[in-house]
Amino acid sequence: YLSNIHRSGDMVIGVHCADYSKLQSQPLTLLSSDKSLVTNFLDSEETSVKKVAATFDSKVLKNKIDGKFIRINGDPGPGLVEVSVNEKAAMIVMGSRGLGTIRRTLLGSVSSYVMCHASVPVIVFRK
User: What start-end ranges are recorded for coiled-coil regions in this protein (predicted)?
Assistant: First the structure.
């Protein structure tokens, strides 16, 4: 991004969606019998979000870029599109985790959703 797209005066908005999918995959009986499982998972996810935010803030400061971090919850595709609308984004630059064909077919792809629903250009890069 910095080498090829960024221009002076641009603002970068880092968006991260917390991943609660592991919590949803646990049997309800297991979750209801041990409340600490839920608490520990939520604490772990919160720590992960804070780490992502700190990494973003560090890179923005290091490269002297105007930027801010936004945390979203829920489905990441619609959340990213909503942030792009609310923040009046000129472009979306996002990464792709490179899911396998079967998993992508069953679950869908966040990048595919964003490309189909965003009203601005979308650039997707592989990790």
Answer: none
